[in-house]
Amino acid sequence: MSFVGEGIDLAPALQATGTLYTSLPIPVREGAVFAGWYASARDAADLTVEARLNGADMVTCDERERTLHGAWVSPERHAAEDARIPILMYHQFTPRPEGEDHWLRGNYAYIGDFDDHMAYIATSGFYLPTWDELSAFIDGEILLPSRSVIVTDDDADQTWFDLAVPVIDAHEVLATSFMVTAWRQDPPPSPYVLRRSHTHDMHRAGENGDGRIVNEGVDVIAADMTTSADILGAAEVMAYPFGHHNETAKQGLRDAGFEMARTIEHGYVTVGTDKLALPTIRIDYGMGLDALIARIG
Fold first, then answer.
1. Are residues 81 and 145 in contact, defined by beta-carbon separation less than 8 angstroms?
2. Cβ–Cβ < 8 Å for 241, 202
3. Are the C-beta atoms of 158 and 93 separated by less than 8 Å?
4. Residue 171, number of CB atoms within 10 A of its CB
5. What domains can you pick out in the chain, each with its CATH number?
């Protein structure tokens, strides 16, 4: 894979066909904001979202080599985009249109609604940022289209594997599964699913009834998160159990090498958002396609 564009001087990199692009560089240039990699120079000049390539896309190559074209925009153009990135948060799933009938009813998205959601995202021109792109976006170093969205699931419940992952595969939508690695350590169920941490063993109450992650010291938190990262093979982003977090939790994450963490607080990611307190858009039972559109456009 070769990289070309104004001011871009990067060595070629190997990518494997049939897998998602990995570790595509995000160059930095004074006085400009990177606007992504594209299939052609024309697409780069036009900032064609459909032709922008990243870690949500499968590598295809007929001749064993390919060139990606980088684009830049001015800081003023970047500010005018005024992107607000929603991180969708799902939990469990149900095949019953009437929903479940227990106290966690609200957590169970009807799988028909989820299918509608993913179909809409896949066919309506949405860009699917990777976590490293979101980090660079927060730092003001990369342009993300205003129609961008990140899909996540908490807990890696069995209904995620049985019901939701086939939908993810069918629509080829990049999704992140936040796993509690003391509960399960399943391999990635799909090339479109990233496994990331929901802690190793902190998804339970501590002494004061709040989550363990706000009851333990920095060293204990860092050790737990290091264990989880070693199992999953990644330490870039995690989701706080129950959404509980404080400054001690943040420091534990930093010490374990984590850069970002998602809360359960409602909101959208913008330039300058606290990377260790990313807001989210919670999806509950009964939220059909209209409800999703109202939240992500």
1. yes
2. yes
3. no
4. 17
5. 2-79 (2.60.40), 87-296 (3.20.20.370)
List, in sequence order, every residue forming a beta bridge with 53; answer none if it has no partner: 37
Tell me the backbone φ, ψ of residue 96, rounded to 5 degrees.
Answer: -95, 115
Residue 233, number of CB atoms within 10 A of its CB: 9
**Position 91, amino acid:** H
Tokens of residue 237, six digits = 């982003």
Joined tokens for residue 246: 């404080």
Any idea what the Cα angle at residue 120 is, between residues 15 and 98, rounded to 5°?
120
238 - beta bridge partners? 197, 261
DSSP code of residue 187: P
pLDDT at 222 over 90: yes
Structure tokens at 206: 């501590």
Where is 248: in which H helix or E strand? helix 247-255
Q: pTM to 2 decimals?
A: 0.97
User: For residue range 24-62, what is the model confidence (pLDDT) as tens digits?
Assistant: 999 999 999 999 999 999 999 999 999 999 999 999 887
* DSSP three-state, residue 236: coil
Query: Helix (H, G, I), strand (E, B), or coil: what is residue 112?
Result: helix
- Asked if 238 contacts 197 with a C-beta cutoff of 8 angstroms, the reply is yes
DSSP E strand stretches across 62-192: 67-73, 87-90, 92-94, 108-110, 150-154, 175-179
Which residue bears the tokens 């559109």? 293
How sure is the predictor about 209, in pLDDT bands with cuts at 50, 70 and 90?
A: confident
**Residue holding tokens 């005018």?**
80
